[in-house]
Specification:
The chain has a single domain, classed as STAS domain (Transcription Regulator spoIIAA, 2-Layer Sandwich). It is 45% helix and 26% strand. The chain has 5 helices and 5 strands, in the order E-E-H-E-H-E-H-H-E-H. It has a 5-stranded mixed sheet, sandwiched between helices. Helix 1 links the parallel strand 2 and strand 3. Helix 1 runs parallel beside helix 2. The longest helix is centred in the first third of the chain and has 16 residues.
């Protein structure tokens, strides 16, 4: 697959940002997400939601990059959530341990509520 990943960053307010992905998360796609996430973290935005609604495949290198992003978010006292996962990506994230340290939601609204500290 040579599909190029696109990342759209939205800032709903406060120290929360939503990264909407569109495409295949492989090494180059993962690096693009990491670049955006690290820029946000550098600006003090440490509560991130990765909305994978338009992503159908994440390979092993993509997962390892997402784990690195998660570690950096946690190191800064932040939170990371995912939403709109395909059943396969959801299962993979749970097997790989991402779900232990990040939250997985069906849709953005409850994820944003958790990221803002409005719910547990």
């Amino acid at each position: 697959m040579s599909e190029t990943l696109k990342v759209n960053v939205e800032r709903p307010g406060g120290n929360v940002a939503v990264l909407k992905t569109d495409g295949y998360i492989n090494n180059s796609g993962g690096e693009l997400i990491a670049k955006e996430a690290y820029t946000l973290l550098g600006e003090g935005t440490n509560r991130l939601l990765l909305d994978l609604e338009k992503t159908k495949i994440v390979n092993s290198i993509g997962i390892s990059i997402l784990i690195e992003i998660l570690e950096k978010v946690l190191d800064q006292g932040g939170r990371l959530a995912f939403c709109h996962l395909t059943p396969t990506i959801d299962k993979t994230f749970k097997i790989m341990g991402l779900a232990q340290y990040a939250r997985i939601y069906e849709s953005p609204a409850p994820a944003l509520s958790w990221l803002r500290g409005e719910s547990e």
